Amino acid sequence: MIKKFLQKVFTKRTKAEIAINKADDSQTSTAKVIRAKTHKINQNLISQAALKTCDGLQKAGFEAFIVGGAVRDLLLNFKPKDFDVATNATPEEVNRIFRRSRIIGRRFRLVHVLWGSETIEVSTFRGHHLADGDAQTNDSGRILRDNIFGSLEEDAVRRDFTANALYYNPAKDEVLDFHNGVADINARILRMIGNPTTRYQEDPVRMLRAVRLSAKLGLKIEPATQAPIQKLADLLQDVPPSRLFDEMLKLFLSGHAIESVNALREQHLHHGLLPMLDVVLEQPLGERFVMLALKNTDERILAGKSSNPSFLFAALLWHEVLAAWQTYKNEAPPIPALYMAMNEVIATQAEKLAIHNRYTTTMKEIWAMQPRFEQRAGKRPFSLLTHPRYRAGYDFLLLRCASGELPIELGEWWTAFADAEGEARAAMLQPDTHPKKRKKRNRKKTASKTELDNQTP
Predict the structure, then answer these.
(1) CATH number of the CATH domain containing 393
(2) Segment (H or E) for 137
């Protein structure tokens, strides 16, 4: 009874605060309209799927804007990787307009509009999550569910950073700026909208996002935005592992992974994200290996090449596998011990960072190949060359050699062996000193021979 009474009192007080906040917002949330001659957005960088989505919504009588990070990147003259659209149409209305679309999500109901291989994420303008409706927070203030719809002005208040609260209308070729985001972008500042402590409590992942955006875009985190991060870092423990994985994947595949890791360290956010990664980074050999892997990933992405998340996470967790492997060697042969170590590391990290099974399977294949690269006699090198993950395993071996974990000569040998052919390749093999397996006798044949001997007069 007392608990319910307190909840009612708190709710009433909160709604009163909301009314005050709305009144304040109405005075300060008038958007600046930035015309084409000022913003100079290159429409050639905009996805045709995003343009068609906005056009379809607007023709149906709704408001529609390209929103968030895509607008920020366009203003910086970058080609956005993803495009999001915000509208005053409800998810059901969006779903009816576009034949190839589906409503997703329970925490935040969104619509994915499909155009060929491209997907445009469409969200309905959000209202305040503490208003009446389909919303829920936990004791720490983290938003668990938020399907409160509102106006364009309210939606802008709900965005995280000023640089992300920008709305581009392709039909009018103009940007609506509610929180001086364009000025902050020009000044290279990343600023939180509202009280940073409250906003991080609502969604702790925003702390990681601040680090990622500052590293990727070269933005300096504004002092008030940065101040609570170290104190609130433990809130990340409460984030579902799947969300944490998605955000870490964006961070490591941003093309600025090294800057991101350094920023994580500065903000004391690296502890616990990948179990014991902070310990690895404090060991000279481990740090060199991880940094080489991140450098390799950054170079591929910035060169427009694809990068396999499996390879990256295999590298980030490799020294944990090595440590566990040494322990298990005391109770099992080397190869079974390696598999025991791999399973332990995957299980440990799953508690904090849910790496998808499609990645962990490849990670294990890369790890399992490593002892085989040290076998350079007999038929074993030939069979390894035919392994479907050979190239990934080979690249991983070269990183180990470059970091000083293995002799450079081993990597050079495999490079030459893969390039050689016929007799030249066979001549490279080392003498086979591996104990040969004893040929099993066919007991059935032996028994038959004995019976026949016994029957012979």
Answers:
(1) 1.10.3090.10
(2) strand 135-137
